[in-house]
Amino acid sequence: MMKKVLVTGSTGFIGRHCLPFLLEKGYEVHAVFSRDSIDNFPNILWHQADLLVPGQVSGLVARVKPTHLLHFAWITAPGTYWTSLENLQWVRASLYLLEAFVKNGGQRAVMAGTCAEYDWQYGYCSENITPIKPSTLYGICKHSLHIMAEAFSRQMDLSMGWGRLFFLYGPWEHPGRLVPSVIRSLLQGEPAQCSEGNQIRDFLYVQDAAHAFVTLLEKEITGSVNIASGTPIMLRDIIYKIGEKLNGKNLIRLGENLISTNEPPLVVGDVRFIKNQVGWSPNFDLDEGLNQTIHWWQRYLSGEK
Questions:
Q1: What is the assigned CATH class of domain 171-201+232-273+283-301?
Q2: pTM (2 decimals)?
Q3: Cβ density class 222-243: b for 16+ within 10 Å, e for less
Q4: Where are the domains of the chain?
């Protein structure tokens, strides 16, 4: 039987990087987009749909009849997604999508969760140990979806995995986020205004994250799985690494941006489960990932894509 995967958020930061991995695994890949599909991806079957409109979702899933589902679509705009009421709409839309998927014979689903589901006071986040206590509407909605989707999946005998993402960087990231904002400023010879950069985070190259999701989709593992590097790094160290690579350390301005008073000092993922049970580990270290990202931004800013 042909494996058919429906990918939502397929033109987004993570989804677009999943497409070649899925083709390599032999899937017939059906990619959902709301505005513009990606022209340079051969062998992808594109479907335009607004997933916030139930009628469009039911029609799409009934036509495709996917065996597998990889769900990334959500509100992701920096600065607004933490508190946007649109998070509530995406909980409803995701549940409706999952219901339509099962109704049309779906067998295996993997959805994107977030490290913001954890209680960040603990710093080190482990799937079955660290308490769940999201402090933002975004984290609450993601966790609420996980609880409901997991209960629904058990009742309907659906195999479902939940990938908890930590901090990503790489090609196609929103330009307002840390890594691209520093790269773009230095490439343009402008000061890179940053916070003090004392926060410690877990950064993963986006192509590795995409590969992790596809690897998880291939397994029958259920429940939550951290998708992270497992390597703590101080933000200022990333900023200075970029500065060294672009000979722009003199343009770095630490301490010019204020950070929230409730910003946690440490957020790092425990990756023992994904390494030992899923059989995945990153292919890119930070140096190589930053090299790839800088090269992409150089091409992008020069008009290439």
A1: alpha beta
A2: 0.96
A3: bebbbbbbbebbbbbebbbbbb
A4: 4-168+203-228, 171-201+232-273+283-301
